[in-house]
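Sharing a chain and its predicted structure for anyone who wants a worked example. Both blocks are below, sequence first, tokens second.
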Amino acid sequence: MANIINAGFLGLAEVNGTKIRCQDFSMNPRQDALFYDHIVGLRDSIPDSIFAGKGDVGNLNIQKTIWRPSVKIYQGGIGYPLIAEDPLFELARLGDKFDLTFSYDCESGRKFTGCVVNSYTFSVTAGDIASITADIMATGLTDSGSLGRYTEEEKIVTWDDFTITATGSGGGDLDSIQSMTFTVNNNCKPIYTAGANNVFDLNPLTIRVGMQEVSGIISYYGKGADLIYMGDLGSIDISSTIFNATLNVLFKPQERTSSLGPIISPLPFVGVDYALGE
């Protein structure tokens, strides 16, 4: 009998009515069986070589007979090229909850409820496409059908669609930018309560959004800005026809290296104040 191999599928996600063509999607339920260690063992016998030993007869004991299920969490990554206005950026910025539906193939899908963006990364490099990766946590999951065919014609947002400027103490405008990436980390944690409050399903009651952290790197050709030490509050403006963000940051000491080939100098930064705007 021949094995049936299904072709790969460019998955389709939907967030707040916006459809996203995903390159990667790995959100899955996680739950473990927790055993009591004193039940685990191969043999309960003492060899003859030990005083008063009863002899190792080689009988195996039943193992792992006492167990309990751990709490559940639904978590994983999503990655996609930037095509339409990105709904996850605003959700990451504010820490708001949302539902996410994903089609694994043309017939089956899953709906994740009570989702929160745990981390979000935007990156774009000269001559390449803009890409988004995010880690998402959810409190619930149900199986659902496929979202159906999505045939709308869309243009992938590429490097030439962006205008990126960075200003700060001594930095001025940065020209010749080779790449830009920033990450939003919301430090989310699932919250569990007593079973009576959680309908005995071991799902998280809610997900707590922690202290938001923003960091990233601008890499540019050549020397770049004359910025050596951390100074006053600066800003980075990222704008295109469909994606706009202003980051309030402190620039860290810039790095300069020399090599055979194009010289790329990274300028790291960290978000401060209302890092992603109010």
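Comments welcome. The longest strand covers residues 108-125.
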